[in-house]
Request: fold
Amino acid sequence: MVVRVPTERFEDVPDFDYEPQYVDVGELRMAYVETGGSADGDEAEETFLCLHGEPTWSFLYRKMMPTLAERGRVIVPDLIGCGRSDRYEDRDEYSVEMHYDALKTFVEELDLTNITLVCQDWGGVLGLPLATHEPERFARLVPMNTGVPNGSQEMSDRWHEFAEMVATADDLDIGRLVENGCYSDLSDDVVDAYRAPFPDERYMAAARTFPGLVPTSPDDPGADLMAETQELLGEWEKPAFVLFAKEDPITSHDRDPLRHHIPTATEQPDVWIDEAAHFLQEDAGEEIAEHIVDFVDRT
Reply:
């Protein structure tokens, strides 16, 4: 069964006054917000496609959007099962392929081009495959606290414990989960904004399943797509700027291998985001946006 979050759940979300828009992706409705850009939708203008991860939504980019909007069009979708987007109630409906196909359809339906991909966590796990498989649409990559897990990587005991907790916890508090992944303290209204898309357990299937979808063996579903993506990233010729947070215990060790794997990434400044953790957009969104605008300007 497909469920849709009641709109009143988002009435008290702070500092996020963007009107939601929607794209049909198969039987589901995918939500997004948009700002910036020229009135005539000039194909040559910069387009920033900002992709969140588990278990957040487009709200995560609110601190970055104003600065990026001064430089171009900003598109920030909610992945299926997240934010205002529709979701399946049945956990078995979710897969890497389903999420990837939904994102691919979204980008094709909006006919986005000249894209600077800004992606974190699952936003990179899904966005980097799309960029490498449809490179004609993408101008630049900005991977942040993310990776391309093809099943050959070693997963820590801590990660396995986290995946099990998310899948099985009797009372999964999404707001506290996000807060625990931040370096800074979050206000109560911001914590509540991350809880907003999850009125009850019926709405939580995507959040529950994301960690378990990460390929941990080369035979897992989605591993082939990730392996292809790693190979294509090794051949990437367009600009790439890798931005990771120093205080992220989940992905910080992946930063240098990714930066040295993408050929053009080492042509950009060697930057770490200080005093930021896994959800670095929340901790240092304004600073990150300035780095990205500077990157676009010099490339």
Observations:
- The CA atoms of residues 94 and 206 lie 7 Å apart.
- The longest strand covers residues 28-35.
